[in-house]
Write a structure and sequence with these properties.
The chain is an alpha+beta fold. Helices cover 33% and strands 17% of the residues.
């Protein structure tokens, strides 16, 4: 009750009296409390003999809330501290630093388990159950969970720890993330130096394993993993294929499909030139709208 007492009697008014900046962040913080994320993180971060002045689960939720509100640095936590008459005590930047530093001594599995427990509850509360993913205006089977894995470049403007030159000749990081297309959630991510490879199988299988563990058990039976041409490798596809035949506990009966892009070689270019214009079909996005300057055609029969 202590973690949610700040919201007791909370009311929203638009009459211009007692204006609160970044009022939308209040709803984000309240959501985390109501679905149990704050409490499960607090439990995961408990340390024997240590009683913090600011509950560590609350601190992490406040950091996440600050980021949602547009924060870019730890010092931006002050945007929430200025709302103490609404939110109650909020940790100082120095306390946030300490809380994040303490995570190095906490098992990542405990934090991941806290997130997974909360996600299970949220998915159970979804009206109508888990939404079906859509592709090119087509609805995929409702029980199919679609995972998109992709790497991206994050620019660093100074020589921060592990920052390095990237393959795009920029400087920073090259993290990999996995998103659930059904809900739009980021399930798992791993931070990598800028010079990390695009198709490093070990990195992809590692982050996908973490992402699958975040999916509530009843929804792990039917999965589709999508990877772009820069990320796929034979080793990754072999790993996905093995999941269909694994006899270990929790994987029996699991169906895992994959959809990957691949490099366009000279052989493929030549095959494309043989396709008559009438065979091409306009490409569509997930909502069924035609994509500008994009068409598709089947050339499997023209390849060796």
């Amino acid at each position: 009750m202590k973690r949610t007492s700040w919201s007791s009697g909370l009311a929203i008014s638009g009459d211009g009296s007692g204006v609160v900046a970044h009022a939308g962040s209040v709803a984000v913080r309240l959501l985390a409390d109501r679905v149990g994320l704050t409490e499960t993180l607090s439990t995961a971060l408990v340390r024997r003999g240590f009683v913090p002045g600011h509950d560590r689960g609350r601190v992490l939720v406040d950091v996440a809330t600050m980021l949602v509100a547009g924060g870019e640095a730890i010092s931006d936590i002050d945007t929430l501290r200025h709302q103490d008459h609404v939110l109650g005590p909020v940790a100082s930047p120095a306390t946030v630093w300490r809380a994040l530093d303490e995570l190095a001594d906490t098992s990542a599995k405990r934090v991941a388990a806290a997130r997974a427990k909360t996600r299970k509850r949220v998915w159970e509360l979804l009206p109508g159950g888990l939404p079906a993913a859509r592709v090119a205006d087509s609805t995929l089977p409702k029980d199919l969970v679609v995972l998109d894995v992709d790497a991206t470049i994050v620019i660093a403007h100074s020589e921060k720890e592990h920052a390095a030159r990237t393959f795009k000749k920029t400087f920073g990081y090259h993290p990999i993330g996995v998103w659930c297309d059904n809900t739009g959630e980021l399930l798992a991510a791993t931070l990598r130096p800028g010079n990390a490879g695009s198709n490093t199988a070990a990195d992809h299988t590692g982050v996908l394993s973490e992402a699958i563990a975040q999916i509530p058990a009843p929804h792990r039976k039917s999965l589709l993993i999508r990877v772009d041409g820069a990320g796929y490798s034979h080793e990754l596809l072999d790993w996905i294929t093995r999941m269909n035949t694994a006899k270990t506990s929790g994987r029996r009966g699991r169906s895992v499909q994959y959809s990957v892009g691949f490099a366009v070689t000279e052989t493929i270019r030549e095959a494309i030139t043989r396709v008559p214009k009438r065979a091409w079909t306009p490409a569509m996005d997930a909502d069924g709208d035609v994509r500008e300057h994009a068409d598709i055609v089947e050339i499997t029969g023209l390849l060796p």
